[in-house]
Specification:
heterodimer, A: 379 residues, alpha/beta, D-Maltodextrin-Binding Protein, domain 2, 2 domains, 39% helix, B: alpha+beta, Arc Repressor Mutant, subunit A, eight-stranded mixed sheet, 24 helices, 10 strands
Chain lengths: 379, 621
C-alpha cells in the first residue's frame, strides 16, 4: 500500500466515536485508504504537530485558535467552490464567522450557539405566559423576577434565569445592544470594549445579579438544583438543547430567541471548532474527500448530537429542521457574528482575567463603567 | 516590557482589600489608622518584602507593589501638574522607569521615596516639554539654571548636574533617595561610556567628572578649544543613543567595549535514581543541591504535598492533570516552607497556543521579547543560582516539563538548561526562550533569618515535625476532595484524590468506540507510580512517635502497594510517544490494577486519618 493512500488525522476531541465511525465508512468506500487517528491534548500539541516535519494531513480542533494562524492550513474556499452546490449549501452565518481574511482555513465542527430554553412547568405553575419572540430584556427580567423563589432564609429554591459568568457568553447581549469587544480586524479593544453600548449591556446584566437577584451569583448558596431542575429560563447552548432532545423533553421545554436589548441589533454568537487540511499535507485531495465525508455527508452523526450541522441539506437530512427545538437553533445561525475571541488571540487569552473582573462587579459591586473601560488593555 | 508586570486581578483584589482598611502603602501608614500599629507594621513589612522581591526581578511583586502605590503616585503627579490626564501619563512613564531600574534600588525600605523622586522627575520633564523647548531642552539652557532638580534618566540633565560644582550637588547628599539616585546616575553613565573611543572618553571624563574647562582640556591634549567642544558634543550624541539601548535592555552596539557575557554554573550531581517525574519538585531539589542545600527527594515530595497528589482529566487519560495546580502559589508557599523567598517572571503569550490552559489561564498576557526574561536569567545565574524554567520543548516522550537554566551565552545567544531525556543538558536560543508560550521562571533566595533560626536548639526538629503534620493533613484532605483544583475555564475539570481513580477507571471502561488516550496513560502511570513510592518513602521518615508513627508506617506500606500496582500498570502501558489505540482487554487489565491501587491508597488514607487523630490528641501513646 503506498503512502499516498494513507491519511493521518489529529483530533483534540476526547470522544472518538464519531471520527472512528467516519473512518470506518470512508475506508469501506475506499478500500485502498488507511486512516490513522491520533489525539492531541490541546491546541499547543496540534500546533506543534502542524509545524513539525511529520505534520498530520488533517487536524481537528475544538477551538478556532490554531485556525487563526496564517500558513498552517490549506484554504478550503477554492475546494468548496469546485464542489458543485456546496457553496450555496453552506450556512452563510457560519461562513461569515469561519471566513478568515477571505479564506476558509477549516470546515466548522462542534458548532453551537445560545438561545433561551424555558421550562413550561414552572411557567404554568406561576400562571405566566410563555416568552415570545421579540421580547425585551426588561420583559425577561420581569418574568425572571416572578420566577425566582426564595425560602425564609433567603436562599433561592428556584432561579428565574440560569446564566453563568463568562465574558464570552455575555457577548451576545453586548452585540445585541450594538456593541463589540474588539475591532473587526481584532487589533484593538480601544473604541470598542469601552463604549457605552458595552457598558450599558453589562449594567443591565450586573443588575440582574445584584439588584433583581434573578441569576445565581458566583458562590451564592442555592437549593435550586441543577440547571434542568429549578431554573425557569436557561441560557442554553446547543449542548443543553441536545440533552433536551436526547431525553425526549421537547414537550417540557420551549425555545425562544435572546431578548431584544435597547440597542436593538439582532445578533448572536457562535462557538465552533474546525477540521482543516495541513498546508504540509501531500494528500490534499484525499484529505478533502475525507473532510467532506466526515463533516458534510453523514446525517447519522447528528442523531444524538449536541452540535449544529453547517449545511442546509444536512440540517434537513438529519431532521433538525423538523424538530421544534433544533429548528429554532438552525434559524438563529443566520444572525451569528464573529466574537471577540475569534478576532483577537490576545483578548481570547485574557478570558479568565476578564472573568475575574466580572465576578468583582457581581460580587463586590466594582464600578461597571470603570472596570470595563480598563478592558482596553486586553486587546 | 511593562505589560509583563500587569497585575492579575486576584492581586488587585487583595490590594483593594488592604486599601479599604486604610493601608495604602507598604511604608507609610494612613493617619486615620495610625493607632493600628500592628497592621501598619504588617503592611510595611509586606511593602518591604514586595520591594525586595521586585528588586530581585519578580515581576509579580513589582505589579503588586505599583498597585499599592499607584493612586498615591497619581496624587503626587496631579499636585505638581494640576492636570489629572497629564498625571496619568506621568505615572505611567514613572512606573515604566521604576520597572526598568528597580534593580538599582539599594534599600527596599526606601521604595516609596525612590518612586516619589521618579514621579517628580517625570513630572518636571513633562512640564518642561510644554515650555519653549517643547521636546528637548538644549544643553546650554541647563547651565543657566541654578538649584533646579535633576532629571535622573535624562542624560542631558545628568550631565548638566555634573557640570555644576560638586559642593552644590553634595548639598542633597544627606537625602537617602538623592544618594540612591546619584549612585544610579553614575552606574548609568558608566554603563554607556564604553561606546566612546579612548580619546572621546578621556575628554568626556575630564570635562564632566574632573570639572576641567574646555580651555584646560585643550591645553592638556594640545588641541583647539573648538575641537574639544566638538568632542564633547559628539560624545553626548553617542552616549544618548547608547543610553536608549541600555535602558531598553539591548546588547551594546557591535564594537562596543563591553563584551557579550556568558556564564555557566556547575550543577550539583543529580543521579538518575533521585529523579522524580514531578519535575517541579525534582528541579527544585536539584536547584537546592546546587545552592548547597541538598535534600532527600522523597522528603521534598512529601513536604510539598506532591507525593499525595493525583489528578485525572475528566476528558480522557490525557496527562495534563499532573500539572494542574496553582503554580505561583504552590511554589512560593513550598519554597517558604523550605526557607526561601521566590522571585517569579510569569505570563502567557497570545501569539502561540499555550498548553495546560487550566494552569496558566490567569497568567497575564505578555509580549515575546527577550528583554522581559533575559535580564532575570543573567542576574540569577550571575549570582550563582540556577533558574527554574518551564520548558515547553522537552524531549520526548515528555512534552513540557520544568527544567533548570544553568548558563547563558550572549555571544551564541543561547541558554543552557536541563532536560529529563538529555543528561548532558541542552541549549535553547534566546528567541526560543522569549517565544515560549508559557513564561514561568523562578529564582530562590535564602531567607535572611533562616540561618540564625535554623541553628537555634530544637528549632529544626520542631519545624520538621510541624511541616510533616501539615503534609499529612494535606494528604488526607486532598484524597477526599473530589475536585481540589478547579480551573475557571469551564470545559476543563479534573478529578482529584481517591475520586481520580474512579475517573481514570471510567475512561478505561468507556468502550471500544471511545478508547482512552494511550500516550497519556503511559505518562500518568509513570508519574504516579513514582509519586506513590515517594509517599511511602516519606512516611517512613516523618518525625512522629508512638501510635502516630505506627499508623504513618502502615500508611507507608499501603502506599508502597499502591505504587507496586501502578508500576505494573506502567509495564502494561510504557511511557513512550505513541498514537496506538488501546484494545478492550488491555483497558480492562489496566482498570483492574487501578482498582487495586485505589484500595491500597484508601487504606493508606485511613491510616493517615488515624495518624492525625493521635497527633491532634497530642499523645504518643
Amino acid at each position: 500500500m503506498s503512502n499516498a493512500k494513507s491519511l493521518k488525522i489529529m483530533t483534540e476531541f476526547q470522544h472518538l466515536d464519531n471520527l472512528m465511525d467516519a473512518k470506518a465508512s470512508f475506508e469501506k468506500a475506499h478500500p485502498d485508504v488507511v486512516i490513522t487517528i491520533e489525539q492531541a491534548a490541546d491546541h499547543a500539541e496540534s500546533h506543534r504537530a502542524l509545524q513539525s516535519d511529520e505534520a498530520p494531513d488533517i487536524v481537528e480542533s475544538g477551538g478556532w485558535s490554531i485556525f487563526n494562524r496564517k500558513g498552517l492550513f490549506v484554504d478550503l474556499l477554492p475546494l468548496v467552490e469546485e464542489t458543485p452546490g456546496l457553496k450555496e449549501d453552506l450556512n452563510p452565518g457560519v461562513m461569515r464567522v469561519a471566513g478568515k481574511d477571505g479564506t476558509l482555513p477549516g470546515l466548522p465542527v462542534d458548532v453551537a450557539l445560545p438561545l433561551i430554553l424555558y421550562k413550561r412547568e414552572l411557567f404554568d405553575k406561576a400562571g405566566l405566559p410563555y416568552p415570545r419572540e421579540g421580547w425585551t430584556w426588561e420583559e425577561m427580567i420581569e418574568t425572571a423576577k416572578k420566577l425566582t423563589l426564595r425560602n425564609e432564609r433567603g436562599v433561592a429554591t428556584q432561579f428565574g434565569f440560569g446564566f453563568g459568568v463568562d465574558v464570552e457568553e455575555i457577548e451576545p447581549f453586548v452585540m445585541r445592544n450594538g456593541g463589540r469587544y474588539v475591532s473587526a480586524d481584532g487589533t484593538t479593544a480601544r473604541g470598542y470594549a469601552d463604549q457605552p453600548a458595552v457598558i450599558e449591556a453589562y449594567r443591565l446584566l450586573i443588575d440582574a445579579y445584584r439588584v433583581h437577584r434573578v441569576i445565581r451569583r458566583p458562590g451564592e448558596p442555592s437549593e435550586a438544583g441543577e440547571l434542568h431542575d429549578g431554573f425557569a429560563l436557561v441560557f442554553g447552548f446547543a449542548w443543553f438543547a441536545g440533552a433536551v432532545v436526547r431525553y425526549g423533553l421537547e414537550d417540557k421545554y420551549g425555545v425562544v430567541g435572546l431578548p431584544r436589548m435597547p440597542g436593538g441589533e439582532n445578533a448572536n454568537m457562535l462557538y465552533m471548532g474546525a477540521a482543516g487540511i495541513s498546508a504540509k499535507s501531500p494528500n490534499r485531495e484525499l484529505a478533502w474527500a475525507f473532510l467532506r465525508h466526515y463533516v458534510l455527508e453523514r446525517p447519522e452523526a447528528f442523531r444524538h448530537a449536541n452540535t449544529l450541522p453547517i449545511t442546509k441539506s444536512l440540517a434537513e437530512r438529519s431532521g433538525y429542521t423538523d424538530n421544534p427545538v433544533w429548528r429554532r437553533f438552525i434559524e438563529e445561525m443566520d444572525v451569528v457574528q464573529p466574537s471577540g475571541f475569534y478576532l483577537s488571540e490576545r483578548w481570547n487569552s485574557s478570558r479568565q482575567l476578564i472573568n475575574e473582573e466580572i465576578i468583582r462587579m457581581i460580587n463586590e459591586g466594582a464600578d461597571v463603567a470603570q472596570t470595563i473601560r480598563g478592558w482596553t488593555r486586553f486587546a | 516590557m511593562f505589560k509583563c508586570t500587569r497585575l492579575p486581578a486576584s492581586h488587585s483584589m487583595r490590594a483593594a482589600e488592604t486599601g479599604e482598611n486604610g493601608m495604602r502603602d507598604g511604608n507609610v501608614l494612613d493617619p486615620g489608622v495610625a493607632n493600628n500599629a500592628e497592621a501598619a507594621k504588617e503592611s510595611a513589612d509586606l511593602g518591604t518584602e514586595l520591594a525586595e522581591r521586585a528588586r530581585a526581578g519578580d515581576t509579580e511583586a513589582f505589579g503588586e507593589l505599583i498597585e499599592r502605590h499607584r493612586s498615591r503616585a497619581k496624587s503626587w503627579a496631579e499636585r505638581m501638574t494640576g492636570d489629572p490626564h497629564l498625571a496619568d501619563d506621568i505615572v505611567q512613564d514613572a512606573l515604566i522607569r521604576a520597572f526598568m531600574h528597580i534593580g538599582s534600588l539599594q534599600d527596599a525600605n526606601r521604595f516609596l521615596p525612590w518612586l516619589h523622586r521618579i514621579v517628580r522627575n517625570q513630572a518636571n520633564m513633562r512640564l518642561r516639554r510644554g515650555g519653549p523647548h517643547r521636546r528637548e531642552k538644549p544643553f546650554a539652557s541647563f547651565e543657566a539654571r541654578e538649584g533646579g532638580s535633576v532629571v535622573w534618566d535624562n542624560l542631558d540633565s545628568i550631565l548638566d548636574h555634573l557640570t555644576r560644582s560638586a559642593s552644590k550637588a553634595a548639598i542633597k547628599e544627606d537625602d537617602p533617595a538623592e544618594h540612591l539616585m546619584r549612585k544610579e546616575m553614575y552606574e548609568t553613565i558608566h554603563s554607556v561610556l564604553h561606546c566612546l573611543t579612548k580619546k572621546e572618553r578621556e575628554i568626556f571624563e575630564a570635562y564632566f567628572f574632573k570639572q576641567l574647562s574646555p580651555d584646560e582640556i585643550a591645553a592638556m591634549y594640545g588641541m583647539t578649544t573648538g575641537s574639544i567642544y566638538t568632542y564633547i558634543h559628539r560624545s553626548r550624541q553617542k552616549l544618548r543613543q547608547e543610553q536608549i539601548r541600555v535602558s531598553l535592555g539591548l546588547l551594546p552596539e557591535k564594537g562596543g567595549a563591553i563584551l557579550a557575557r556568558n556564564k555557566r554554573l556547575q550543577l550539583a550531581e543529580w543521579p538518575a535514581h533521585a529523579f522524580v517525574p514531578t519535575t517541579m519538585v525534582d528541579r527544585l531539589g536539584h536547584m537546592l543541591a546546587t545552592m548547597g542545600d541538598s535534600r532527600d527527594i522523597a522528603e521534598l515530595m512529601g513536604l510539598s504535598g506532591f507525593a499525595f497528589r493525583m489528578q485525572i482529566s475528566a476528558k480522557t487519560t490525557f496527562a495534563d492533570g499532573i500539572y494542574m495546580f496553582d503554580w505561583r502559589e504552590t511554589l512560593i508557599s513550598f519554597a517558604r516552607d523550605l526557607g526561601y523567598e521566590t522571585a517569579l517572571v510569569c505570563g502567557q503569550l497570545s501569539d502561540f497556543p499555550a498548553p495546560l490552559l487550566g494552569a496558566v489561564e490567569k497568567f497575564p498576557v505578555v509580549l515575546p521579547i527577550e528583554e522581559a526574561v533575559l535580564p532575570f536569567i543573567r542576574q540569577t545565574i550571575d549570582s550563582g543560582r540556577p533558574v527554574l524554567y518551564f520548558d515547553t520543548s522537552a524531549a520526548r516522550p515528555f512534552v513540557h516539563e520544568w527544567s533548570l537554566i544553568f548558563g547563558y551565552d550572549d555571544e551564541r545567544r543561547v541558554v543552557h538548561l536541563t532536560d529529563v531525556m538529555r543528561p548532558e543538558g541542552k541549549t535553547l536560543s534566546y528567541e526560543d526562550v522569549a517565544d515560549n508560550p508559557v513564561r514561568f521562571l523562578a529564582a530562590l533566595t535564602r531567607q535572611a533569618d533562616r540561618d540564625q533560626t535554623a541553628s537555634l536548639p530544637g528549632t529544626r526538629d520542631t519545624r520538621r515535625k510541624r511541616l510533616a503534620e501539615k503534609s499529612v493533613r494535606f494528604a488526607v484532605s486532598f484524597a477526599k476532595n473530589r475536585s481540589a483544583y478547579r480551573p475557571m475555564t469551564s470545559y476543563l475539570s479534573y478529578a482529584t484524590g481517591l475520586a481520580a481513580y474512579d475517573t481514570w477507571i471510567g475512561h478505561l471502561r468507556r468502550g471500544p468506540g471511545s478508547p482512552p488516550n494511550r500516550y497519556g496513560m503511559g505518562h500518568l502511570a509513570h508519574a504516579y507510580s513514582r509519586t506513590k513510592s515517594c509517599a511511602a518513602a516519606y512516611l517512613r521518615t516523618v518525625p512522629f512517635e508512638g501510635e502516630a508513627m505506627r499508623f504513618a508506617l502502615l500508611a507507608s506500606e499501603a502506599y508502597e502497594q499502591a505504587a507496586e500496582a501502578l508500576r505494573e500498570l506502567e509495564e502494561l502501558t510504557p511511557f513512550v510517544k505513541t498514537s496506538e489505540l488501546m484494545q478492550t482487554d488491555l483497558c480492562e487489565r489496566c482498570a483492574g490494577l487501578l482498582e487495586q491501587a485505589r484500595t491500597f491508597e484508601a487504606s493508606a488514607i485511613g491510616y493517615l486519618e488515624k495518624t492525625m487523630t493521635f497527633l491532634e490528641r497530642g499523645t504518643s501513646q
